[in-house]
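Hey, quick one: can you model this chain's 3D structure?
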Amino acid sequence: MWGHQTGSHNSQYGLSVSSRMSPVEAAHYMGIPNMIMVRYGGADPFPPDRQYLVPFRGLRRVVWSVAGGGVFHSNDAVDRALEVSSLLPNVNGVMMDDFFRRGQQDAGVLSLAELQGLRERLSQAGRPLDIWVVLYDHQLDLPVGPHLALCDKVTFWTWQGEGLAGLEENFNRLERLVPEARRRVLGCYMWDYGQKRPMPLKLMELQCELGLRWLKERRIDGMIFLASCICDLDLDAVEWTRTWVQQVGDRAL
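Sure thing. Here's the predicted structure for all 253 residues.
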């Protein structure tokens, strides 16, 4: 489950109804035991009140944000992620959202040296913390290879729903960039954010069924559903996905 603070997408991307659901509530509602918690709009996903973290104890695995919105939020964000990892033993990684930028000689928000420095900082956690990164379909032509090589998990997203027609072809390109299947994760939007409209059910089903097939074929290591802050809006794609997860979630791969 891709998590944002409650209400992060309210009145944005064509969404007209406000969400009240917390990230952990969304994970439980969807039947998804894992969470990637990502800051949105500059808001720190970890408020000073440590009580906020208590519900996250009930999740299986948690990944915490260190970069979002195309910005690395200073070393303080890494300190916060390390603090969260010390309070939640189920934290096993950090996420860099919107990491790559078009038109930059060095495509990443962090240089290669800075990214290596992040890995060294994370070693202070006392246990392995994977570095996760977001890569969009329209970024496949950017010089991202050297940065991806320093990341443990590459999550692949199709920004506009109409682009899902090319998902299989684009995924083949991703495989050439990231040869190890254990490092590849498929991101699935439950709302068409790129076109600010509902995700058609046929495209929601396409994402899910391709993801399930690739899991069975050992071509990806997992799937992510975005986002927690739309899970209580009674959207057709969300409700379809919830039913689908109930049907396939416990299947042996």
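One thing worth noting: The radius of gyration is 17 Å.
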